[in-house]
Amino acid sequence: MFKRDPEKSAQKAASREEKQQVRTGAAEKRQADKDELKDWRKLHPAEKTMNTAAMMRLWPSSKFGVTGQGPVLGGQAEFVNAGAHKAWTATRLAGGVATGGVSALAGRKNKGAAVINVTFGNGAAQTYNVKPDSTTLRAANQYVNAFNVLASQLADETSSASSPEAVQPQPQSVADELGKLKALVDQGVLTQDEFDQQKARLLGT
Q1: Distance CA 103, CA 94 (A)
Q2: What residue spans of 55-164 are helical by DSSP H?
Q3: pLDDT in tens, 167-178
């Protein structure tokens, strides 16, 4: 009867265990990344708004404030709408039809133009055409506003993080303190007894 090699069996078991640990570790990392992004977007709701507006369109979405074209930080977006809209139009047929050649075919045609101009934090610039239907025009305006709000928030956070801590007041010397107290005595704000008491406190006598 065939007998299994205990050593090979142990190696296979160890290999399976190792693969399982790798899969588990990868799953835990993916979940941790999702949780981190979720927490970040709670503090930066403009990114979610921006990505929602960009959904199903060619406008770049963002993750942790970075798009495929460059960072939002340091960038700026602009929505230019030159009267973009859809209008009903009629097309004349060549004649000889039942309508006597009057307008017979009607449809909606794009009028005007609209674009989104985006400059990213790395200096890259891109222009995106916007379809002239009302839904896309509203989304374009929403996208640009959210992009600029996020850029402003990130700039404020960067400025706060990089600014030096408030300068702590340096303790004044005993001589300085006594000088100020003497000036108050000369001005009649403190009496000589009060000055002597403060002087004793400063000198520790």
Answers
A1: 10
A2: 134-162
A3: 454 556 777 777
DSSP-derived pairing of the beta strands 125-129 and 76-92: unpaired
Tally of CB atoms within 10 A around 198: 17
Question: Distance between CA 115 and CA 83 in Å, rounded?
Answer: 11
Give me the phi and psi of 92, to 5 degrees please: -80, 140
Alpha-helical segments (H) within 88-133: none
Tens of pLDDT, residues 32-70 = 999 999 999 999 999 999 999 999 999 999 999 999 999
* Chain Cα centroid distance, residue 14: 45
Q: Which distant-in-sequence residues (6+ apart) come within 8 Å of 32 by Cβ?
A: none
- In this structure, are residues 115 and 136 in contact, taking their beta carbons and an 8 Å threshold? no
Which tens digits make up the pLDDT trace of 78-128? 999 887 776 665 554 444 444 454 444 455 666 778 999 999 999 999 999
- The H or E element spanning position 82 is strand 76-92
Report if pTM > 0.85: no
